[in-house]
Amino acid sequence: MNPAHKALRERTRGAHERVDAVFAGYDLSDRAHYAAMLAAHAEVLLPLEAALDRAGAESVTADWPERRRGAALQADLAELAGGPAGAPPAPGAPFGTGGTPPLDTGAGADQATIAGTLYVLEGSRLGGRFLARQLATGFPRRYLDADQARGNWPKLLSKLDAVLYEPHALSTAVDAALDVFEAFETAGRKWLAKV
């Protein structure tokens, strides 16, 4: 495990465990629960992917456009709803009081903030594969089954290590990762309360 990965993993462990605990409350064999879980993810993922686009995520990983999963998430939500693809209603603001993703810094985010955000979003693919096994037969699974190409996770971790070699950069990345985990936890709790 490279130093940046080790530090990110250790310093965000509690936040990650809280997110896992919230999403464990969804019964993925139930259509309403699954739709709510996807809506919670959409509330966080869609604005973050747009923010990563604006911030220039390609500066950290050139294959960022291929890593995006928002379209798969929207397609699954649309299929569950029986309607056209589109963002689900997402009342409330998961990113603190302003509802602004941590990447919206005006002129663009620094590479450390992008790196911390990518760490959470790309790491969630691993959990998605596990969750996909819990889905009822016939439920759409594009988003949860959006697996990485072989070697993409280790390649990303190497890139993060190259970007996060200074203590300040690593601290910034950890803060961004914690913000993203908090947004997922908040959205997860909100949508779970609706089902």
Word description of this protein:
62% of the residues lie in helices and 0% in strands. With 195 residues, the chain is mainly α.
Q: What is the C-alpha radius of gyration, as a whole number of Å?
A: 16 Å
The low-confidence runs, each spanning 5 or more residues with pLDDT under 50, are: 84-93
The shape, in one word, is globular
* Largest sheet report: none
Task: Determine the fraction of residues in helical runs and give it as a percent range.
Answer: 55-70%
Beta strand count: 0
Tell me the β content: under 5%
Q: Cα distance, first to last residue?
A: 39 Å
Mean pLDDT: 88
Question: Structural class of the helices, strands and pairings?
Answer: mainly alpha
The DSSP helix count reads: 8
- Listing every helix as H and every strand as E from the N terminus to the C terminus, the arrangement reads HHHHHHHH
Which key terms come to mind for this protein?
mainly alpha; 195 residues; 8 helices
